[in-house]
Design goal:
Shape: globular
Order of helices and strands: HEHEEHEHEEHHHHHEEHHEEHEEH
Bound molecules: manganese (II) ion
Structural class: alpha/beta
CATH superfamily of the largest domain: inorganic pyrophosphatase (n-terminal core)
Number of helices: 13
Largest sheet: 6 strands, parallel
CATH topology of the largest domain: inorganic pyrophosphatase (n-terminal core)
Strand order of the largest sheet: 3-2-1-4-5-6
Oligomer: single chain
Number of strands: 12
Amino acid sequence: MSISDQDFKPVARALLEARVLWLTTHVKSDGDGIGCELALLRALRAMGKKAVAINDTAVPRSLLFLEESPGEILLYDPARDDGVLASADTIVVLDVGLTYRLGRLERAFLDSSATKICLDHHLDADRAFTHIISDPSSGSTGEILYRLLEAAGLRLNPAVASPLFAAVSVDSGSFSYERCSPRTFQIASQLVDAGAEPYKIHMALNWQRSLAEVRLEGEVIEHLQQDAGGEVAYSEVTAEMLARYGVDPGDLPSVVNIPLSLAGVELALLFVEVQPGAIKVSARSKGRVRANALAHCFGGGGHPLASGFCLQGPLEEARASVLAEARALVGRVHANSA
Ligand SMILES: [Mn+2]
C-alpha cells in the first residue's frame, strides 16, 4: 500500500511540535539510514530544535564523507548519552521498524515515553511506535523523508539535500532498481535543484574503495561457481580472506552483484564467513526467483530482489544446505511457469 500525501500530515505536525529529538537507525547502518539521519538532523537544527543522532554501531568508513564534522552522528556511549536519550520528547527511527534492530539502544527506546516516529520502507514494524510511515513500494527511506520534509513545509538547502540524495541513490542502486518510480526521479530532481551534486556524491559513494577490497573482489570472481543449470551463481569470502586483506565484511555490500551480473543467472549468492563458524549469506535476484523466499527457509528476511540471512558454519555445510534450497526454489519457479 502506498502512502498518500495526507498520511504525512500528522507526522509533520509531530515533528514541528517536537523540541528535543533523538534520531537513530538500525545497527550496521547503511547509506539510506545515515543519509536520512543527517538530512533530518540538519533540517531540525536549522529550525532551532535540539536534535541528536545516536546509533548503536559506527558510521561505515565509506559513508563518513557525508558528515560535515566528525561525530555529527554519535556512536552510543551509555554513560554520556542515556541522559540525553531520556530527555527526548520525540524519537525518529529511520529505515527500520523492528526495534530489536536498534541494538543496545532498544532498551532506551522502549523505556522512553516520547512520541515515537518510524519512517521506513520495509514491511515489518513493531507496535512500539506512535506514528508509522512505512511504504514498501518506496525504494528508499530517503524518498519517504523527502515527502515528510515537504509536508512539514521545510525548505531544502544543500546541507539537507546532499545526504538525502545519497540516501535515495544508495537504496535505488544509483537509480536502477525495480522500485525506481517517476517520483524517485522527481525527488532526485528537486534535491539537485536544492544543491545536491550527483557526480560528487556518486564518486564519493562508489569510487573510494581500497586496493585490498578490489583485490579481494578479484578472488571472489576467481571462486565464482554456477549451479541449477546456470541459474544460480555463487561465490564466497572466507574468514581467512578477510584477515589476509584486512577488509571489514561491512565494506562488501555490492560484491554479491558480481555473480548476479552473469547472463542466465537468476539468483546470486555470496557466502561470507564473518568469523569462523558464522556465515552471512546475501541473496540477489533478477526477479523470477524470490530471494526472500530463500531467506525465509533460514530465518532471514528482505525483499524479493535482495535478502540476507545468517547460518552456523562450517562454510561447506552452510553452502550445501543453501544451494539445495536454491535448486528447489528454481525448480518450483520452473514448475509454476510450465
Ligand atoms: Mn533503506
